[in-house]
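Question (not urgent): is this output format expected?
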Amino acid sequence: QVQLVESGGGLVQPGGSLRLSCAASGSIFSINAMGWYRQVPGKQREWVATITTGGSTNYADSVKGRFTVSRDNAKNTVYLQMNSLKPEDTAVYYCKGSEVAGTSTYNYWGQGTQVTVSS
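Got this back:
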């Protein structure tokens, strides 16, 4: 089992920055990749960014060039640095840990942290 806890959300003005953190505990050695997702009420959860154990990263087009995902293996923590924030970035942000075991994939989710971009 893996436990994930997000933090760092809050209210920020358009153009501002926030850094989200996702602290992992438990059987973290089994995690192959960590991802960030976001969700607004009434819409499906949307993928934002992924970082693998090897450090490879990928981003949704909507955040490319503005968001940066990174990891600190010593702290078992993944970060999402969000710059040039826009009102449309307002959402609950979740981190996800993915474990691939053979042909099966197990996903672990945090509880989410609210990000509100508003003047």
